[in-house]
Each structure stands twice: as C-alpha cells, then as structure tokens.
Amino acid sequence: MVRNAMNEWGWPARLFHWLGAAAILVLLAHGWWMTHVTARPDRIANYAWHAALGYDLVVVTVLRLLWRWFGGVPALPADAKPWERIAAGVGHVLLYLLTFATTLAGWAMAGTMRTPLTHDLLGVSFPLIYVSQDRVAHEFLEDGHKLLAYVLAAIVVIHIAGALRHHLIKRNDVLRRMVWPASRPA
To answer: Which CATH number describes the domain made up of 11-179?
Structure first.
C-alpha cells in the first residue's frame, strides 16, 4: 500500500521512518565515538562523513513530514487514553523539532570548520547557512549541537519504549503498522 490509511502507514511513510531512524541512531553513536574515541588527526574525515549523513537526514525528514502532512496519519487505537494521545503528539513533535534543531546546529557548525563541510553522502553540495572562523562561535555551536543530540537521544529512547509498550503490554498494532504491512485476505 502506497498511501497512508486510517489503520496503516503506506510503504513510503515506513521507508522514511526507518531511513530517518537509522540515520539518527548512526549519527548519535558516531557523534559520540568521533568526539570521544577517534584520534585527533582522524577527526576531520569523521566530521565530514558525519555532516554528510546529517545533510541526508534533513532531506529524509523533510520528505517524511511532507508525506505525513499530505498523506494523513493512521488513527491511534480507539482505547487510547487522553494522556496517551497527548504523549504521542508531544513525542512526535519533539522528535521532529529536535531532529531539525540538532541538524541545523550541526549544519551551522559545518561552516565554522577550517575546511567547511558542504557535501552529503551522494556528493550533493549543500550551501552553508553560517560561515565564521570565530572559535567562540564554533564552540557555542558545537556545545549546542551536542546538548540537542543528547536530548534527542533521550526522546528516541522514550519513543522506542512507547512503541514496545504498545506492542508487548497493550498488544495493539501501533508498532506493527510501522514495521510491516497488514496481511491481506486471500
């Protein structure tokens, strides 16, 4: 199924979700690794790859939001309590806001590097949104990017816990419909 339905996500929505989820998890792990483990001389190559994946995450997130806005959103289970509906809405808004805020801070920081980082994984050039060789500006953006990434990581953990709660405890189809399509009767 291509289009979203009242009880199921279409395959483009699932694809954008899982591409974005994979990119976020890789970026979080790689960001920590490259700043805490990688030897200093090897960091620029890691920063370049990290920025490239971050640019691609922006594109996937924009496509996902467009698909969501124009394709609709499947309904929550009928037995969802008001607090669960509010938590789901707030959680999704926070995921999108933090994804954009984190990537925008990283994008701005890319213009403060000695060698500006401007290409995504496919070699597409992205314009810099901020350019400065001021170390104070770089450190401010780096600290902001790191803080936002940690908050995003916490929201991702809560999101995963909520999805598992729906699947394992409530035993509804909230997780299933984002993982695989509903089986069709013969």
So the answer is: 1.20.950
